[in-house]
Fold each of these.
Amino acid sequence: MESRTSTSYSLGLLKEPSRTTLFRQEPCGVTYRIPALIYINDGETFLAFAEKRRTWRDCEAEILVMRRGVHQNGSIQWSPAQELKTAFLPRHRTMNPCPIYERKSKTLYLFFICVLGTTTEQYQIYTGRNKTRLCYVTSKDNGQSWSKTTDLTKSVFGKEFGNFATFAVGPGHGIQMKSGRLIIPAYAYYIHVRCFPFHFPLIVRPHALAFYSDDCGSTWQMGEQVDTSSCECEMAEVIDQDSRSHLYCNARSTQGHRVEALSESSGAAFDKSHFAQKLVEPCRGCQGSVLSFVPSLRAQGEGKNCVTSNANTWLLYSHPTNKRSRKALGVYMNKSPLSASSWCQPWIIHHGPSGYSDLTQFGETESFACLMECGESSELEEIAFVEFSLSDILKSVMT
């Protein structure tokens, strides 16, 4: 297991957590990007996913890779990197891993997109020619073996496919709500106006949305889009003090702050979208991760620097905290997720260059992990894994 002790950087008295490098940029230029992380309680197993690319560029992506982590003798033992060779379509590149675990059937779904050749996202947006497919593979043995690829594009989009210049899932994890509904976060570039008679796109805007399933993943539907321009997103279920469920969406934006929205229909539609003033974005934005959890009674009595809670679940959120560039990855906490801008100050878990990240909770304790792009000179250098506890977050809040 390759690990590195944290430096002396700290927020107040709280140091960065130690990190374990899972994927490292190779001297030949091969780069690993777009982390996704999931913990499967049934097998007590972490699965860490990433894209393997010939270079750092999006159009040079090739295949998804994975490492499995299992607790042994007080530490996590990680398997060697494995290429997911069944997660592909011929002549397409595989991108944006988005895992989700279905509790009833004990099935792990790994969603991703397949993009034709080296077609770029910008080409699809400018021309309105969608070259992307919505796909998944499944595993019944905690990621040791995988099914062949299922292409959902036609069944989910139907005739609407031509109205989307392009789309993607996540990246990052999906969730299963208490009702059993499976939620895959996604975004699409919707063609609002075309130039007739040539059908050339004139107005194309990105919008976050959800794909969802109510039959353990047998069939999938597409929800309505968040009305505010929004891009890469993750979602979390918030349970209020009356035990009612709300689906929370946290999405990338180019307007300097994150977009937040709530759904009272479990992802079928979103409303109440707004810009989160306490969650800054660098100039072009960056992906971030969000996670909901139920705090213990002990934890509820701590963190007094944050507002009073209005829900039975709290939120964690990870994202670069610098508004000018991708660096200083922080973890934020929100005790009152149904109120706008109620985030606490972040705990910086990596002060250097930082990019995409994904959060997960593991075990039956208030323990969490983050898989993040990071480095000393560039966030492209490695994808690293860190563990931390809720008490670490609470200490940073009270510092």
Note: Residues 36 and 233 are 13 Å apart (CA to CA).
Amino acid sequence: MNERVADDRLAGLFEEHRGGLRAVAYRMLGSVSEADDVVQEAWLRLSRSDVSGVDNLGAWLTTVVARLCLNMLRARRTRREDPLEAQSGPDGGPVVGPAGGLTGGADPEEEAVLADSVGVALLVVLDRLSPAERLAFVLHDLFAVPFEDIAVMLERTPQAVRQLASRARRRVRGGDAPRPDAPQRRRVVEAFLAATRGGDFEALVKLLHPDVVLHADRRVVPTPEPIVVRGARRVAEGAMAATGRARFTGVALVDGVPALAMAPYGRLSVVLTFTFDGDLITGVDVVAEPDRLRALEVAVA
């Protein structure tokens, strides 16, 4: 087999695995651009390696991608203590500052679609795990990689990896039992998000109590003082102005109660919690200050 044919065959084999590798990398990193960078680096390493003795190329590539993601997550934790800096751009979408450590060129629409398909709440919880916990949970629980294989990647025993995945699983599920009225509240919160994403002003007003009060901390806008908005139509108008942000928002359990979490590129930046009177929202608390966000327990709804 000549060199050109061998290269073409290797490229073809890699393309067969590209989608799965990208899925692993995205769940590990929460960013399309970072995931694509990792997959590209995996191809470069494959093209420079002699894999003639590799029996399972998919497992070999998954190991490469996992280790690259692990290194990136560890570097991210040492580089960034605060949550991702995200503000609204001209179109209402997030503008990511240098603190996020993201590579450029990501398509916001693709980021939003992927976040929706994976689950914003899951991405938020994964971002709060240690790199080792995240690797163990993603590979085992989401992609059924055996603990023995993950142990080799982390240089730990299979039992230790099992414990990492177990701790991560508890964080994903949350420690607080949902309230008995959680399903009802979730339906209202989902309707709030759907109306905001769809720009349906009147549908949003119908979900709000006429005397609803919204509180937003200083980091949300930002402003010198916290913001207080009263009345259904005024609160709905403010929500309509955040339609772009809503693309990166999903329903989550926050301290055991259905809420909304905004996480552009998989990193929590804003949380909306609600109070209710029956099926009507009476209060909205918009949280963006890092200390307040860190104090919240976020789980998959």
Note: The radius of gyration is 21 Å.
Amino acid sequence: MPKQKTIPELDTEIAAKEHQLAQLQHKQQQLENRRSYYEKGDRRKRAHRLITRGAAIESVEPLAKVLSETEFYAFAEKAFALPEVKSLLMSAANAHNAAGQKGTG
């Protein structure tokens, strides 16, 4: 039969376990902070990409500035549905992918 622990031994064990719990909670908070940081970074990158591409459209075609958001979306849907535009976009994407494969291969 195991020897019973004394009250001071139990108090010491409790203090050690509480310290260990505090360390684990701190580690969990660090991991949650890291996840939040990376998720925010992804959102910032997306926002930056959307802003720069929107600015590029306006600089290439200034008339796009006068359209409302709804009008612009309708225009974009029609423009990207054109076979010529689809073909140009596909060519650009293929060129991008080919360049990426050359860089990794």
Note: The chain has two domains: 1-62, 67-105.
Amino acid sequence: MPHQYIRKILEAKVYDVAVETPIHPAPFLSKRLNNTVLLKREDLQPVFSFKIRGAYNKIIQLTEEERAKGVVCASAGNHAQGVALASQHLGIHAVIVMPGTTPEIKYKACQARGAEVVLHGDTFDQALTYAQSLVEEKGLTFIHPYDDPYTIAGQGTIGMEILRQHTGQLDVVFIPVGGGGLAAGVATYIKYLRPDIKVVGVEYEESACLKAALEADERVVLPHVGLFADGVAVAQIGEETFKLCREYLDEVITVSADEICAAIKDIFDDTRSVCEPAGAVGLAGLKKYSTENQLSGQSLMAIASGANINFDRLRYVSERAELGEKREAIIAVTIPEEPGSFKQFCETLGKRNITEFNYRYHDARSARIFVGVQVHPDQMPVENLVGELREHGYPVANFTDNEMAKLHVRHMVGGHSKEVENEVVYRFEFPERPGALLNFLMKLGKRWNISMFHYRNHGAAYGRVAVGLDVPPEDRQHIAGFLEELGYHYCEETTNLAYQAFLG
């Protein structure tokens, strides 16, 4: 099998439309990690993503008859733009099916390249089903985003460039994994020519379909896929890509949304370029792997795979980057309700900067404050901060890893009405599109009174909501069925400490 793919990679005709992207050093991050950090800049492709390689290499293999009928694909963005540009270059009609939640920047880029864009459904799976129906209905050729030998070979040309451009020491290469096309192609090539180089696949922890497949020793379908890193939001690893990734990846690790946001900031600091979340997954993995394995003096490379980010999402990224870098702590502290207590608390913090301060009257004896504090993972870690405050007699709760606190409570610090006696609290994710919030409220508000609500648009393909419902004890047994009918991913937060401390 490797010989077959090596030949396909060497013969791939990607450079009619793609460019050979440079490898750039990341000096600031290299110094911080005490390793040489390198970035393979696939965000510099004409469509700002590596996907153009695989799409073009597949489409150029089509027969004249297939070209005449046209092509179709389903994609949330990057593959779609690759198919659009490849089809435009070859004079082929392309139909791009995208979920209705796709950011405007992505579908307009496809239209600008002459593709016919169809917005269908809320999820990639719904778009995929519709795209496949067009194959039967109109005779179009389906261009798979990752699970095709020619697509895999096209992405594999990145591995060829890496070994040709960087001939010196190279210890580990980190590759983002969604459906697995990029990882399969690059890992197969690198391990064939340089088996001494370790190749690590990196997945977003809420869409880790390869990790799940490796643990089960077979392809599985994830019950829920987080959409933050939409470019790698895949529920099941590809069939062909799974075979190759299982054989040629040395390891697979996962990273959190906060770690991805921190990596986006690191790429910006070193290159002045802004990657999309999926594009920074590889570097997030590099940082995590380097720290956990205490690497020093090694040469580490991450593929910066794409830069198609909706501008509105930068607000969320900037908020979470410091948390991902472990440079901000989110804590709840109880202080005496008396004159001078704020001043004394700030003096206890010493030279640490306060990034956020929310106050809530608790009772005549005490007050609760929700505080963001600047820390440092080495010199001033959050654990030291919590320990120092407790030594000074302050009751402290660390909410740095509490999603309810970071997403909602920090924007809502208030109180609980005495008239609401039976509040239960849930966090939801729902597809973000015009009218989505109203539709959500219409479905939610038919049965029980809404006692608390927080929603904040992050410019993403999904909305995140915190909801309190006033549900009498005799109705509790009906909640689960009602929430399942809503059809949105949810989790209960009634016992969440952040909610209990400031909103409960």
Note: The radius of gyration is 25 Å.
